[in-house]
TrEMBL record, chains A, B:
The lineage of its organism: Bacteria, Bacillati, Actinomycetota, Actinomycetes, Micrococcales. Mg(2+) 5 binds at residue 231. Substrate binds at residues 62, 280, 330. Reaction mechanism of ThiL seems to utilize a direct, inline transfer of the gamma-phosphate of ATP to TMP rather than a phosphorylated enzyme intermediate. The keyword Membrane does not apply. Mg(2+) 2 binds at residues 55, 84. This is Thiamine-monophosphate kinase.
Length: 335, 335
């Protein structure tokens, strides 16, 4: 739709809800026993338990209007919620969307947000069950999404962070550092990519799309632990290591091959930093009992070893040193 | 806890999460297969389907710090979510809590919020399954709660808004107008009640507590439609009337008896206005196929009649006139 200059206040709550629900009209309705419009939704649960997670994005913290469209924000907030479900071996079955925004927010932005949410939900085959609209007194804009889901077919137990054991192999479902590289390009003034590589990196920062089915694939392959890369490889690996009481030893060669995919958009040192510390990637990071169990298309990154006293507490190591999760290890790479 | 002057930024995300989870430690854990701390929660669902709703509160819109404590805000946001479940004939089985706040927010406030959430969740026997913490760039503070639930024992179908039929009796589970009266007292400068009545009204505005079990009670009694009074009797009745295609005729005598409970804290005309238009009450409003079906303790407010062309479209009527949901009807009462 084109910008007609209307704000939320001008359109009114009923008009806003009508526009929002129109954007969700073509989403699947499998399992939706009661949809938007009543006091609550009612969603069928086939497998005796529901997965539930919530993730919020805030303007000027999680996105900047000059760099990201409303559609981008909608895709991003849905992807990060669905990636959390995938990281349990699950798939989405429903979304709840809460928007808090000032009355001066352009309706065009609110419609764009709904279109982005519908795009990402549609790719995953997930309905929007309901939501809430609130006004803010300041100019804050916040989108809180709750994703419900269930364990995918063939997955008997959720894959938790703490199931890793010494000897397990660490692997990732796709590239790393793209979102961080895209952000670095934006901060460097390159909001329009100068070539196909830069455009892909910018796209992944603005509207990350990952193959969420790889979560169930990993679970069926026997993944012992899993998490999605939302805060960077080192921080998220460190969470797995500490939850499982092991040390994860990263393989420099594997990291450098991933970093090479970000060059020449970034210089080599910056590329390695983004592979280690770049967040909002949302690829899946998992451990497997053997290299032969790692699914096709995944990249082996290292191995779990027993955390013994000599090497300090559980954590992530590279080239014999522990990587600090607070910095994503980048102090070790010339800052 | 006492205020130690620490802010969110000073305490850090890990410290904040630790304090928040400590507040929830004594809540029941029935059905919680995976709780806070992993990518998602996993909640058992006994009855084949999950109820889901989300409701957000925003500082300076839904509460003012000079009038409401953090504990009040926590109780209020949980109550309004659980009341939505009750209005389907359901009960809560889990909560997700998202807080977005500036780094300067006092930790004491965040702890108080969690204590209030724990208080209301504890009264309802509902665990906190997980959540999210985000920082805001402005001074906005927002709390988004998602409540999951299931139909209560003995309730076979959700009670929707649209099930009302001509001849049904309209009733409410408790008093009306208390929250609106409490707000009117605050706006009049009476932040400390001058007597027991005023204190009760102020309490219900700040931290509404309702008997959520009345939702399942009504459902088992054969309620044909139900909603909780969040936006005022007229607006919420109007929703039921339009959803069911009927006219709901209110009984002036019943309204005046409810209004009398707000006098002398409010003058009689103001009291009737609050009964009609006062929001955030969260008592349950339901229709029943006969007066004999109305549960003990509920108050009959009127009756559903066929909406015929002569009286205009479906809506709410009093003394022969349609009440405007946009104003809660108060234009008809001398404004």
């Amino acid at each position: 739709m084109t910008d007609d200059g209307t704000t939320l206040a001008g359109r009114g709550e009923a008009g806003l809800l009508g526009d929002v629900l129109a954007a969700y009209r073509d989403l699947p309705t499998d399992g939706v026993l009661v949809g938007p419009g009543d006091d609550t939704a009612l969603l069928a649960v086939r497998r005796g338990a529901v997965l539930a997670t919530t993730d919020t994005v805030v303007r000027d913290r999680d996105w900047r209007d000059e760099w990201s469209s409303a559609q981008d924000v909608g895709i991003k907030v849905v992807t990060q919620n669905l990636a959390d479900l995938a990281a349990m071996g699950g798939r989405g079955t429903g979304l709840l969307v809460a928007l808090a925004a000032p009355p001066t927010l352009p309706m065009d932005w609110a419609r764009g947000l709904s279109e982005g949410i519908a795009t990402a939900a549609g790719m995953a085959g997930v309905p929007v069950l309901g939501g809430d609209v609130s006004s803010t007194a300041s100019d804050a804009v916040m989108v809180a999404v709750t994703a419900l889901g269930e364990l995918a077919d063939g997955v008997q137990e959720p894959v938790l962070r703490g199931g890793v054991r010494p000897g397990d192999v660490l692997a990732v479902s796709g590239p790393l550092g793209r979102s961080g590289a895209g952000l670095a390009l934006l901060e460097g003034g390159a909001s329009v990519g100068r070539d196909e590589q830069e455009r892909r990196l910018l796209d992944h920062h603005r509207r990350p799309v990952v193959d969420l089915e790889q979560g169930p694939v990993a679970a069926r392959a026997g993944a012992t632990a899993m998490i999605d890369v939302s805060d960077g490889l080192v921080r998220d690996s460190d969470r797995v290591a500490r939850a499982g009481g092991v040390t994860l030893v990263l393989d420099r060669g594997a990291l450098e091959r991933l970093a090479a995919q970000l060059v020449p958009a970034l210089p080599a040192s910056g590329a390695l930093r983004q592979v280690l510390a770049g967040g909002e990637e949302h690829e899946l990071l998992a451990t497997f009992p053997a290299a032969s169990a790692v699914p096709a298309g995944w990249t082996v990154l290292g191995q779990a070893v027993a955390a013994d006293g000599a090497d300090g507490p559980p954590g992530v190591r590279l080239d014999g040193s522990r990587l600090d999760p607070a910095t994503g290890g980048w102090d070790h790479f010339g800052g």
